[in-house]
Design a protein that fits this description.
The chain has about 210 residues and is mainly alpha-helical. Helix 6 packs antiparallel against helix 8. About 85% of the residues lie in helices and about 0% in strands. The model has no long low-confidence stretch (mean pLDDT about 90).
């Protein structure tokens, strides 16, 4: 589809193309934002958290807290909260667990920011594409009905082809947004499970190991 053909489309169809383009830009923008955010939050990097847990469980709480304070990853911030609670109230592990879960909730909320935008793209793009196709088909057959001359099958086919491109574009955008959202959600789920494990390990110890 060249530029002249695009300009000859009905205004509503042009609006559909513009909306689909906006959705594609939003998808790319959100993907870049989330990837950058996850890198800054250091998702998936658990080596430092393992070192902190080793110190904590082997009777070196000061060293563990020092490492947690100096590291700015999600897991270290959660461990910092649980260790602070356990040291403040050694006889009440539930206090440390509650502080850790509050910290984890804050982190998970940050991770989930703007994810709904991708979900909206997955829902909206196919519907917009279908709307563009329906409008294009109406325009193509309306022009055919209004024509006084013999119908040219090539012109009709061209109109139908142009109309169907909006559905194809909408589906393509939705699929890309879906796979990006699924990958990001997978990263969040992995981090959620790791957070649960480090909280449990800090309070109850690892399997076969008791907290010192």
């Amino acid at each position: 589809m060249n530029f002249d053909t695009l300009l000859s489309l009905p205004p509503v169809t042009l609006a559909v193309y513009a909306a689909l383009f906006a959705l594609s830009v939003m998808t790319v923008t959100v993907a870049i934002f989330k990837i950058t955010q996850f890198r800054k939050m250091r998702l998936g990097r658990s080596r430092q958290a393992e070192d902190i847990l080793d110190d904590w469980l082997n009777g070196r709480p000061d060293e563990a807290q020092r490492k947690a304070i100096n590291d700015d990853s999600v897991l270290s911030r959660v461990l910092r909260a649980v260790m602070s609670g356990l040291r403040a109230r050694p006889s009440d592990p539930s206090y440390g667990e509650e502080l850790a879960r509050q910290s984890a909730l804050v982190e998970l909320t940050r991770m989930g920011n703007r994810m709904r935008l991708l979900e909206a793209v997955v829902q909206m793009a196919p519907m917009l594409g279908l709307l563009g196709t329906v409008i294009g088909m109406i325009d193509a057959f309306g022009s055919l009905a209004a024509s006084q001359a013999a119908a040219d099958p090539r012109l009709l086919a061209s109109g139908i082809w142009t109309a169907l491109t909006t559905t194809a574009a909408g589906l393509a955008i939705a699929l890309i947004a879906y796979f990006i959202a699924a990958w990001l959600e997978g990263r969040i789920d992995d981090e959620r499970q790791t957070i649960e494990m480090v909280i449990s390990a800090a309070i109850h110890g690892r399997v076969g190991q008791t907290r010192g």
